[in-house]
Amino acid sequence: MLSVFTLDAQTKRALRPSDVYRLQEPSGPKVSPDGKWVLFTLQSVDSAKDKNKSDLWMISWDGKEQVQLTFDGSGASQARWSPDGRFISFVATRGEDKSGQVYLLDRRGGEGKKLTDIKGSIEDLDWSPNSKSLLLSIKDPDFSDSASTKIRKPYVINRYHFKQDTEGYLDSAQTHLYLFGLDNKKLDTLTRGIYNERNATFSPDGNQIAFESNRSDLPDRNENTDIFVMENRPGAPAKQLTTWKGEDSDPLWSPDGKSIAYLQSSSDEPFTMYGQKMAAVVPSAGGEKQLMTDKADRPVRDLHWSVNGKNLVMLMEDDRQVKVISVETAGKKVTILSEGERSFYALEDHPLRNAWITVMSTPDRPAELAVLENGKLQQITHVQDSFLAPLVLPKVRGFRSTSKDGTLVSGILYTPADAVEGKRLPLILFIHGGPVGQDEFDFDFTRLMYAAAGYAVAGVNYRGSSGRGVDYIRSIYADWGNREVMDIIGAADHLIQTGVADENRMGIAGWSYGGISTNYTIATDSRFKAAVSGAGSSLQLSLYGSDQYVTQYEKELGAPWQKPEKWIAVSYPFFKADRIKTPTLFMASESDFNVPVAGAEQMYQALKSLGVPTELVIYPKQYHGITVPSYLKDRYQRHIQWFDKYLR
Known about the structure:
Layout: E1 25-31, E2 37-46, E3 51-60, E4 66-68, E5 77-81, E6 87-92, E7 101-106, E8 113-114, E9 121-127, E10 133-139, E11 163-164, E12 168-169, E13 175-181, E14 187-189, E15 197-202, E16 208-213, E17 226-231, E18 238-240, E19 248-253, E20 259-265, E21 277-283, E22 290-291, E23 300-305, E24 311-318, E25 321-328, E26 334-338, E27 343-349, E28 355-362, E29 365-373, E30 376-379, H1 385-388, E31 395-402, E32 408-415, E33 425-431, H2 445-452, E34 456-460, H3 470-474, H4 483-497, E35 501-511, H5 513-522, E36 530-534, H6 550-556, H7 564-569, H8 572-575, E37 584-589, H9 598-610, E38 614-619, H10 629-647
Parallel strand pairs: 33-34, 33-35, 35-36, 36-37, 37-38
Antiparallel strand pairs: 1-2, 2-3, 3-4, 5-6, 6-7, 7-8, 9-10, 10-13, 11-12, 13-14, 15-16, 16-17, 17-18, 19-20, 20-21, 21-22, 23-24, 24-25, 25-26, 27-28, 28-29, 29-30, 31-32, 32-34
GO molecular function: serine-type endopeptidase activity
Pfam families: PD40, Peptidase_S9
Organism: Flavihumibacter petaseus NBRC 106054
C-alpha cells in the first residue's frame, strides 16, 4: 500500500484523465476466523502493460498492521479463509494455466501453491466447515476449439437466449457443483444435467448445501431462480425451498442451520429488471417464507446474519445513499446502523461479535475498508492517501428538481473547486445507465473529472432509477424516453433557475442507458449544444436478436411483428433524427453484446447524412464495460475535448 504524505495547498492540482493510472481499489474483504485480520484484494494498474492487476493483502482489524500476500498481480480473486484459519485460498491464472485454478496460501508465509487442475471455469467456491474440502461451482469447459489449429470451429446455436456480454455466444455449457478433497485431490460431481447451480454454500454442520438454480421448463425464457437444498454427497436429490416466479438468490444459512436467508425480487415477471431485491427467510427444512424488508420499499443486498441469529444485517439503497441496516427476524423491526452521504460497496461480518467490515466511499475519497462496530464507522485502510495528496477536488452537493408533471427528482451536483458563487457555468448532464440504478454519494471519478475541467456536472436519478421504490422504477415500463427525458430536462431547468448553469452552454452525456437517454433527450430538446452518447442505441427494433435482452423485449414491448408501432415509438431518436441539431460524439465497444456497436453506428450514420457534426469512436475488443486503462483515459479526454469545442 502507498504511504501517507501531504502537499502544500498551493502545489495541488485538479483531477485529470491520466489519474486513472494511479487509482487503486480494495474489494472482497473477508474476516479471519479469529476475527483479528481482514483479507482483501487490491486492484491497481500496470501502466507498462496497459492492464489491471490485483494482489492479496491482509490488514489487522484495528488497521495498525498490514501485509501484502501476493506480488505477481495475476488477478487473484475469490479469496477465502479456511475455517480453521490456517490457509487462504484464491483463484488465479498463473504460468501454464489455461483457466483459473485454486491456489492455497499458508497464512504463516510462503508462496501460494496450486491446488487444482480443472478444465472449466471456477465461478465460485466455499470451504467446508471442517476445512477438509472445497465446494466448487465450475462451468463446463469449452471443447469447441480445435487443439490442432488456431481456427475456431463454427458456433452451433439452438438456444433461445444465445448471447451474453463478456460470455459471447452461448452454447450448452452449464455450471455445476463439485466437491474437491484437499487431502486426496479428488473431484466429486454433486450435480449434473441441463441446469446451472450458483451461489452454493455449506450448512454450518457441513452436512447440507444450499444453492440457487433455474429449474423451470424453459430456463432461457425467464429469470426464475429458486433456492434448493441437498445433502453433501454425490447423487443426493435437491429439495426446492422457494416457489416465487421471479428471482430467489444468494442463500445464506443461519448460525443454527435452521433457516436460510436469501434475496427475492419484487417482480415475478419472466425478466425482473423493473424491480428490487428484498430480504427473505425460509426454514431450511421447508415451509413458509417471510419477507423481511417488503415494507421498506427499497432495494437491499449483501445479507448477513448476526452472531446470535436474531437479526439480518444488509445494505440498502435509499435516495442517493447506501445505508447499513439491521432487521429483527422476529418482528421485522428495522434499525439503521450507518447512514449519511456515503456509499458502501460490500459488507462482511465479524465471526465472533456483531461487527462488520465494509468497503466504503464518499464524494471526496475513493473506496477504503472501514469497520462498523458499536455504532461507529472507522476507516482502517489508507489506500487512497497518495492518490488524493496532489489533488484539489470539485465540490459536491445534492439537489432536488421538479419535473413538469410535478414529480420530485433527486440529483447530485459537481462544481469546480474554484467556482465563483453566483457565476453561471457550462453544464454537463451526465446520465447514469441501468436504467435501474442510482447516482449516490460516492467518489464518482467520471463526474469529478468533468467538473475538474471547469464544468458544472449533474447526475439525475430520473424515473426508472432505484432508491425511490418500485413504483418509481416501473414508471418507465414500456414507455422509454418519456418520463426519463422529462426528469432530465427538469433538472436542467432547475440548475438554470438557481443560477448554476448557463442555459446557452449545456451538454449531455452517458453510457449504456445513459447513452440511450442522451439520444432520447437531444431528439426532444434542441437546447443542448453538445452530446456524447456512449454504448447507446436508438433504432431499438434493430436490436431484437442482436443483444441479450430478448426475454425483456417480448414481455415489455411484445414481439416486433406483433406490435411494430410500439417498437417504432421507442425508436423515435432514429426516426426523428432530422430534428437533432446537437453535435454528438458516439462511442461504443467493439465486442459489446449488451448494447451492440450497431446502436452507435446507426446514429452516427444518420447525423453524418444530415450534416450534423458527429464522430464515432469504437474501442477494440472491449465489452460493455471498458477495462483497458488507456481506453478509459482516452474516453475521458475525448469527452472533455468535445465539450470544450462546443461549450467554451
